[in-house]
Amino acid sequence: MIEFKNVTKVYPNKAVGVEDISFHIKPGEFVSLVGRSGAGKSTIIKLLIGEERVTKGRVLFGSYEVNKLSMKEFPQLRRQIGIVFQDFRLLPNKTAYENVAFALEVGGRPQSEIEEFVPQVLDMVGLSSKRSAFPHQLSGGEKQRVGIARAMIHHPAVIIADEPTGNLDEFNSEDIIKLLVRINELGTTVILATHDKNVVDNLNRRVISVVDGRIARDEAKGKYIIM
Hints:
Protein name: Cell division ATP-binding protein FtsE
Distance between the termini: 29 Å
CATH class: Alpha Beta
Number of domains: 1
GO molecular function, one term: ATP hydrolysis activity
Family: Belongs to the ABC transporter superfamily.
Largest sheet: 6 strands, mixed
Number of helices: 7
Low-confidence stretches: none
Order of helices and strands: EEEHEEHEHHHEHEHEE
Subunit structure: Homodimer. Forms a membrane-associated complex with FtsX.
CATH superfamily: P-loop containing nucleotide triphosphate hydrolases
Keywords: ATP-binding, Cell cycle, Cell division, Cell membrane, Membrane, Nucleotide-binding
Radius of gyration: 17 Å
């Protein structure tokens, strides 16, 4: 599904984001991407979603070669990728329902689909009773659940969760990870970028460790080990 082939990214200021990295992720995998701040995790994510272009190498997503996509083709790619952010990025003047619906509205989806799909994903994340609540009325864990619902609304092939527990306490972190595991068990590939050692160690899933822009470890049932 996803493949990085000898990928290097050098930024205009000559900083190296990643250097000669290669890995592939199969459909339905749950992969933790770990490393210290500045190690290259964010660069990998940006290259995958086309926010940055490779300097050398190839990034493949299904039938797409990301680096060769035109601007008109990018929306097709990004509909297959849902992103969950550390800082939630909810629209403050919209309710939970409206925040999720907005993701469909900007894609020009008809109102009938919005009315059908939004309640479904809110129910999936356990927020049916909070559909009319505004972000300031929600806990951190509830805000992140809205973020996950928004990421899932297009039924993407892949969910990228970028430090999704970074602003949450231990109890809410555990709930969010359980939700991501359940989404994965339903068939969605999950890529979890995180600094949270406890989360990674408890998952006992595949771990790709990034150190100084290179893949240091890639273990099927790995732990959070950064040398």
